[in-house]
Amino acid sequence: MFNDEEAEDDGENDVTEDDEGDMELPPRDFMDTNPTEVKGDPIFEGDILLTQSQWRAMREKKGIAYETSYWPDDSDGLPFCTLQICSHGMDHWMEHTCIKFQETTNINQPHLKYIYGGGCYSYIGMLNQNGQDISIGSGCDTLGIVAHEIGHAMGFFHEQSRPDRDDYVVINYENIQDNRESNFNKYSTNIINSHNIPYDYSSDMHYGSTGFSINGKTTITTKDYLAQTLIGQRDGLSHRDKHLANIMYKCIDKWLAKCGESQDPCQNGGYYGAGCACVCPSGTSGSYCETETGSYYGALQSSCNEKVTTEGTLTSPNHPNKYPNGPEGQCIKWIQAPECHVPKLTFSAFELYGKNPYCNGNSCCYFDALEIRTDNLNYGEVFCGTSITPGTSFTGTGREMVLYFRTKSDYYTGWSADLTFEKQEGCE
Ligand SMILES: [Zn+2]
């Protein structure tokens, strides 16, 4: 609930372009800069190129016959890419799977053709044709993005398209750009075979929180609120991404055979690796990953994430000094008041990077934002610049409230607010 009408977002208090003119603008997400079509083939879900026949199959929900979309054992990729980042991406895949990329001179066969296209995109799986484009264009030069596009070429869909995604995330269609809703489709088990690998918020194939947002509000909410900061990482393949690839391409079977083992002895999400030993996920230890020491996401959780059950002062990281950008600047404060009480948050400071018209042409808090969820815990009003005047209060309609702070810049000092728990009227 928004209590201070005067602070309502009218843009007047926003940091102007001039104020920020000497600062380097953080990069935009490639999902927002990619084209929607390449040479007549539609771009699907932001960065998946479909052939016309794949497009028809997807629309008719018949799906791609998976095994035939896998690359055969003896195939040669054609990693022609002048950017060093392409080799890094392929090296990353080769380091963690048994898939081999080799340059080939025989172009009369299926192979990958790296191009510097108008964005980052790829086909799903191997096409039965002589070569298929994988574009590593402007803004795509990070290991995690290249590994993501190679993931599509190897047969990976987006994580949030999995048949079981509704158990883990909520899609907020009201915040998605018009005609972009199909980017959030969920597919049946006929199309996506997850091979019993659990859903992974930290997958390199998962969309971020505000993908295709029309207003800067969250489009994908994690059902575990504290996991919100995990989605959309592009640092490289997650443990479960690697595990899935190694099942799809029968790498684990090959390694077991090579090492004289008959079955995978690894437990708790571990798998048998190239070094004749278990590759264990975070949160496990021991030769067979048999000891559970923490959670799979433990090492990735932002240190400023917390469940708040006591009154006090909440701040952005490092406040009153500048907050960091990237993963360190991502915070969820999940507030829970005692029974018959509601949380009330009163700001004493607020200074973030200002608005930018990158949300489908609408001015929104594209780079840095504080989303305050007061009634609906899946998303809320989004603030940036100086649009919250000190003294402004926000009160929850129920016992819970969620603050979601995200950053792509590190130029400002952030926010500070005092949390109190108010007696809820009529509650005994
Ligand atoms: Zn993608």
Chart the SSEs and their pairings:
Blueprint: H1 30-33, E1 37-38, E2 41-44, E3 48-49, H2 52-59, H3 66-69, H4 84-96, E4 112-115, E5 120-123, E6 132-136, H5 143-154, E7 169-171, E8 220-222, H6 239-248, H7 251-258, E9 271-272, E10 278-279, E11 284-285, E12 291-292, E13 306-308, E14 312-315, E15 331-336, E16 341-351, E17 356-359, E18 362-364, E19 369-373, E20 381-383, E21 393-395, E22 400-406, E23 414-423
Parallel strand pairs: 3-5, 4-6, 13-15
Antiparallel strand pairs: 1-2, 2-3, 5-6, 7-8, 9-10, 11-12, 14-23, 15-22, 16-21, 16-23, 17-18, 19-20, 19-22
Helix pairs in contact: 4-5
Zinc ion (ZN) binds at residues 47-48, 148, 152, 158.
Notable characteristics:
single chain; 428 residues; alpha+beta; 6-stranded mixed beta sheet; 5-stranded mixed beta sheet; globular; disordered N terminus; binds zinc ion
Helical content class: 10-25%
The shape is globular
| Distance separating the two termini | 22 Å
Taking all Cα atoms into account, the compactness measure Rg is 23 Å
Small ligands present: zinc ion
Average pLDDT number:
86
Instruction: Point out poorly predicted stretches.
Output: 1-18, 59-65
H and E order: HEEEHHHEEEHEEHHEEEEEEEEEEEEEEE
Helical stretch tally:
7
Give the amount of beta strand, in percent: 15-25%
Alpha-beta classification: alpha+beta
Say how many strands there are.
Answer: 23
The biggest beta sheet reads:
6 strands, mixed
**Major sheet: arrangement of strands:** 1-2-3-5-6-4
GO molecular function: metalloendopeptidase activity; zinc ion binding
Organism: Scylla paramamosain (Mud crab)
InterPro entries: Astacin-like_dom, CUB_dom, EGF, MetalloPept_cat_dom_sf, Peptidase_M12A, Peptidase_Metallo, Sperma_CUB_dom_sf
Active site: 149
